[in-house]
Amino acid sequence: MNKDFVSTYGGIYEHSPWVAERVLELLGDDVADSELLATLMADCVDNASLEMQLELIRAHPDLAGKAQVAGELTADSTEEQARAGLGQCTADEFGKFQALNAAYKEKFEFPFIMAVRESTRVEILTAFEHRLDNEYAAEFETALEEIHKIARLRLAAMEHPS
Known about the structure:
Shape: globular
Strand content: under 5%
Largest sheet: none
CATH class of the largest domain: Mainly Alpha
CATH superfamily of the largest domain: Oxo-4-hydroxy-4-carboxy-5-ureidoimidazoline decarboxylase
Low-confidence stretches: none
Mean pLDDT: 90
Order of helices and strands: HHHHHHHHH
Number of strands: 0
CATH architecture of the largest domain: Orthogonal Bundle
CATH topology of the largest domain: UraD-like
């Protein structure tokens, strides 16, 4: 197995190098652009077992959560949350995030996931509140869709660093 490929792309899906490993099996020694990689990675996730998908969802950190405060996020998650201004939450906003994280996890048993790189704190909080009304199946699918968006943004950032 090409360790360079997995070390380069293994973090595209949060703490889930198995996605890059499966894509490598499909590609072999072929080179792929970020769009093809994004499509292949999403297909691998979409065709994984429900247990693997749930494990992937649960590998994501809470937004404006304890891992962020403790500095325990991956570099990608740190940058994404910083771009959304989550490090500059007011005490009130931070409290809302904590309450919403707890309510969301209680209902769905996995963290709220949103591609936040191009969002504001207000947009994230609004989405959080609306998505709490979803049914489990709809929110599971939404979480996977958001994870795919995150992966595409991460791949694009690798191709065109800012």
